[in-house]
Design goal:
Rossmann fold, alpha/beta, eight-stranded mixed beta sheet, globular
Amino acid sequence: MSQLNGKHIVLGVTGSIAAYKAAYLVRLLIKAGAEVQVVMTPAGKEFITPLTLSTLTRKPVVSEFFDRRDGSWNSHVDLGLWADAMLIAPCTASTLGKMASGVADNMLITTYYSMKAPVFIAPAMDLDMYLNPVTQRNMETLRSIGNIIIEPASGELASQLVGKGRMQEPEVIVAALEDYFTQQAQFSKKKILITAGPTYEQIDPVRFIGNWSTGKMGFALAEECAQRGADVTLIAGPVILKTVHPGIKRIDVKSAHQMYEAAMEHFPGTDAAILCAAVADFTPAVTSDTKIKRKGEMTITLKPTEDIAAALGAVKRPDQRMVGFALETNDEQSNAQSKLERKNLDFIVLNSLRDEGAGFGYDTNKVTLIDRNSSEELPLQSKKSVAKAIIDKLAGLLFCLAFLLMPLKAQAQELNPTLTINTSKIQGTDKDVFKSLENAIKEFLTHQVWTDYHFTENERIQCNFNLLVNKYEKQTGKMTCELTVQSSRPVYGSTYNTTVFNFRDADVEFTYTEQDRIEFSPGITPDNNLTAILAYYSLLIIGLDFDTMSPKGGTDILRQAENIAASSQSLGGGWRSFDTKANRYSIINDYMNGTLASFRQLQYDYHRKGLDDMTANADRGRATITESLQLLSDTRQAKSTSTLPTLFTEIKKNELISIYSAGIESERTKVIELLSRINPSLSNDWNTIKTQN
C-alpha cells in the first residue's frame, strides 16, 4: 500500500508554464490514495484553469481570500491544520522570494505560513533565474528552516535555453513524497538521543580546554532524525548553531561531566543513541575560582573524564542501538574497530583528519561506516547527506530489531517474581480461595507488561512478594494482610545480587472472592485495592531498578506509581499521607520530591558508580560508596521526617557491614558516624564495623 494512502495534500500551483503538470500530479496523488486540495496564485490560473484541477480533485480550487460570489472566507489556517503535507509545484522565483522574505500577499503564501505539516517545494524557472544568487539564497533560507526542496532537472527550458530549472517530472515528485512518508513510518514513535559539539573543560573563569568541533554533524543528524518522525533529544555542547525542527528537544551543556549526566539520564528512555559529540578525554583536576595570573611557567594536572560511550554501552538493553564516532590520526580502521567492540556499539562512524574538506568546521564530511562485519567508505559530501546515510543504516538496524522482537513483544515482561501466601493465622475455613488468590497474583505479576522495553529472561528483575493473611471474612471476601516486597539486581561483573528495595507494608486490606481476575491498564486508576497495591509495587520496583542503572532512569515508570498513590486515596489504608510516616504514599511522594533529589541521586551513585565498580577495583568502589552515603545527610536535612534514609540503611545494613570489612580506619570511622546519626537504632550493628579485620 502506498504511504500516501489517506494523506491530506495541499497542492500549491504558481504562475509557471510548468503549471500544466499539476494535472498529472493530482492524478498521481489521488491514484496513490491521497486527498488533494489545490491552492493557486492568481498568476497560476493563467496557465491552467481552476476548473481542470477542481474536476480532478472533486474539490473547489482555493485562490482568493474571499469567495466572490457569496463573500465566504477561505481559511488558510484550517488548511494548515488539515494537511499532512504541502507541495508547491511549480514554484516560481517570485513565490520563492515571497516565502523567504515574508510577503504574504496571496492565499497560497498565507497557507504556507499557516502550515503545520512539512512543505515540499519543486522550483520551476529559467536557467538564469535559477542560478541568480538571490534565488539560491532564498532556496537556502527555505531549506534552512525545514522546507524540502525537490531540485529541478536539467533540460530544454521554455526560453529554449538548456540547463537546470525544469520542474521535476510528476513521478519524481510523488516518489519524493512517498520516500518521506516511508521514512516517517520507520522512525514514527522512535526516541533518539544525539550528542553534538565540543565540551569546554574550565581552567578558571576565563579559560578552558576545548576542541574545534562546531556541532554541524550532530545537528545534521538531529534534523534528519526529526524530519523522519523521531522524537529527538539533542545534548549540545557550546555551539552557535540553532535547531530548526520542532521535534528536537535541545539540552545545552558545557562540560564533559554535564554531557555525561544528561546522556545517562535520558538514554534509558530511548530506542537509539548517536554519540557524535567531541567530548574531552581529560579535564583539569583543580579549577580556579579566580583568573590565574601570569607568573612564569605553570603546570595543569588533568584527570580523565567519564567515558560516555562506555557508560551507555554498559547499560544498553538488547532493544537499544548505539552509534559512535571516532576521529583518528593513525591506524584509523583498527582503532575504530577496537572502540566499536570495547564500548558495545552497533556501528561506528570513522572520520579522518587526513581528508581535505572533512572534519571540524567544514560543511562537508568524508566518513567510513564500520560495523562488526563490514565497512563502507562514503565519498566526500555534505554533512546533511552524510547524516542521511548514517540514519539509513540506523533505520535498517531498528527495523531488523523490531522484526526480531515482534513475536516476543506480547510476552516481554519485566519482573521475575516469587510469591508466597502465608495463611497460618487463618483457622477453620476453606483454603481454596487462597489458592485462587495465589494463582491470580502469580498470573498478574508474571504476565503484566509495564514498559515498552524488551526484557530477555535473564534480564528480568528478581523480586519477592510475601503475603501474610491476618484476617479473612468469608462472607464478604475481605482480607487483612501484611505484604513484604523485596527486589534485587545483579552487581556488574560478579555473581552477587544487591537488594534494591525491601519493605513491609502492614496496612493491606482488600476484597477477593474465588476466580476474581486482577487486571491493570496503564493510565486507568484501579478500582480495587489489591490491583492498586500490586501495580504500585511492581512499578516502584522497576523504576528503582532503572534508577540504579542511570540517573533518574526510572522517571516515567515511577511517575505511574506516583499517580496510583495519588488516585487511590479512597481504596484503603496506606495511601493517605497522614496514615503513617512510612507508607506507600509517603515513600513515592518523598522519592519523587525534587527537594529530596539527593536521595534519588544516591540510588545511582551507590549502585552504578560504586557497587558495580567494586569487582574491578574494591578500594575505588568503596571510596565512591563512602562519598555517596553523604547524600543521606542531605536528604535528612531537606526533610527530617522522611523515612527514606532510615529505610535505605535498613535495606543495606548487612551489605554495608560487609563492604567496610576492609578499608582504611578513617573511612570506617566516617561511615560509622554517619550511619549512626541516620539510623541510631542500628548503632550496635554499625559499631561492628570497628572490630572487623
